[in-house]
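User: I'm writing a short report section on ligand binding and want a predicted complex to refer to. Could you take this sequence and flavin-adenine dinucleotide and write out the structure as tokens? A short remark afterwards would be nice.
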Amino acid sequence: MSMLPQLINMDTQHTEIVVTDILIIGSGIAGLRAALEASKCGKKVIILTKSRITDSNTYYAQGGITGLDPERVARGKDSYESLIQNTLAAGDGLCNKQVVDFFAHHSYEPIKFLIQQNVPFSKDADGWILHQEGGHEHERIYCVADYTGKAIEETLAGKVLQDKNIKVYEHFLTFTLITRRKLRKNPNLDDRCLGVYAIDRLNETVAAFKANAVILATGGAGRVFQYTSNPDNATGDGIAMAYYVGAKIANMEFFQFHPTVLYEPFGMQPNERRFLLTEALRGVSVGGILTTSPDSTEDFVLAYHPDGSHATRDKVSQAVDAEMKRSGLKHVYLNVTTRISGKTPEYIKEHFPQIYAHCLNKGIDITVQPIPVVPAAHYTCGGVLVDIRGRTSIPGLFAIGEVSCTGLMGANRLASNSLAEAALFGKVAADEAIKFSENKNTEDVPAWYTTGIISHADVATVNQIWDVARTTMMSLCGIDRTEERLRAAVGILDSLYDTINKIYWGYYPNDQIFETRNLVQAAKLIAKAALFRKESRGGHYRSDYPQKKPEYESMTLIQNGTEMKLVPVE
Ligand SMILES: Cc1cc2nc3c(=O)[nH]c(=O)nc-3n(C[C@H](O)[C@H](O)[C@H](O)COP(=O)(O)OP(=O)(O)OC[C@H]3O[C@@H](n4cnc5c(N)ncnc54)[C@H](O)[C@@H]3O)c2cc1C
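Assistant: Sure. The structure tokens for the complex follow:
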């Protein structure tokens, strides 16, 4: 955007309309899996993705992907019941039990698929290397050293780019879902998702995409918080877009903070992603612990939770946050040195090459030095509500991966269940979308139009809205929430939204405006749900209501134009 408003004549722009069978928004593990599945059935598929194809949360996943091999179950090394119980325990009373059961019994399907695609999972002489992470009772996490996500993303993207049925539009940011009710301005019609509008970020033109079925795979909303492990793209676009057209949105207050990202006081850009130190370092396989000083060998988390540093990440994040507030520390330490973990430097270097190299580059040799760490926003547990087949409340619109709320995560995600959920439901929803697409979309989808002379928005105003929203979320709606902070957050976010919404409608279409509007909308949904839930549970901690309450053992649900309410977990 230019600094000074420029006048533009819009009348001749934005005429392109592209038609396809299945339209997928997003190219992380969920979107790529769904695309390959739909293509296998002979469908014409388009993927719209807002940066390069591999830019995604998936790319940065380190620890691994859950998979319960039926053979290990048969040999008594693990059990479906154990994965079910571990997932339910993390979800803290809000998991959908039918979905958890389905997931546990099918979690090996994505592993088989990924092995077939040649994802190079780590092996040793005994077979696949399986990790056991915090909250898991057994070793069942498949990994590619400590760059599992990169290996999966690059492998699947490679397959998609070679597939003749799939066309990928990189740098196309989707900003509006087209639904029958919205298009015809009639809330009484039977609704259906008809397509989307997306801006070509390189040329600043808008195209309409019409499809028989639309699958949202836009990932989470970590960028809503100032400090996050998530890359730039995680601005909550899918959740905001689905909300605008009236889809049901659930459990937005449950945001998982990761307890261990690298503390870097200097040399970081304000928008830079925080480098993650995988859960596997604190898991039973490695045995790292958190301490309050570099010389300490005492796991301080034991003062907050009986499982100490091996507890689930919500408990560990709350302990780190509380300890930092109590003692005034700027960070704590993650210690994986031989003295603590019993692992040799060679073991650490072999299993965590990326982390070892990154920290060494910052002057920390993790085999002999404790690592300074802080918590950061990591995973969006809530999202667009879907049923067990990936269907949202709007016919023709499906949601998969981190943008969705299947009921698997409940109030908190069990480590490494998210890649598996995204890959499994990527297939399930693709199968369902294929069936749905037999009912052809015969409606006219108009080109995007803006008539008359309009100007570019002021970049300084949009940047300020972006910054204020993110700092507000971090300080008033982060790990430790209270009524007073949340009321203040909602007030600030409402006012920011009013301003960005006026800019959205009044100025030349621009990707920065679209993302900022979506980010503020997603932030509002989180803050309002957090204010509504007057208890502490899973990834939602309120120091003014520190206990869990039976009357809140339900999902929070909101739809555009209605009040937030509690509904039973089905
Ligand atoms: C640092 C880090 C480490 C992690 N480690 C693990 C782990 O070890 N195990 C695990 O299970 N999970 C892990 N996770 C979580 C996991 O990576 C994500 O939950 C998962 O990858 C989500 O996949 P997805 O396909 O739903 O979304 P993403 O991978 O985030 O993909 C979303 C896609 O949508 C695109 N997009 C977004 N908005 C738009 C728009 N408006 N228009 C067009 N395109 C759009 C993005 O560009 C991107 O291509 C980690 C996450 C992070 C950030």
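A remark for your report: Confidence is low (pLDDT under 50) at residues 1-5, 7-12. DSSP finds 17 helices and 23 strands in the chain.
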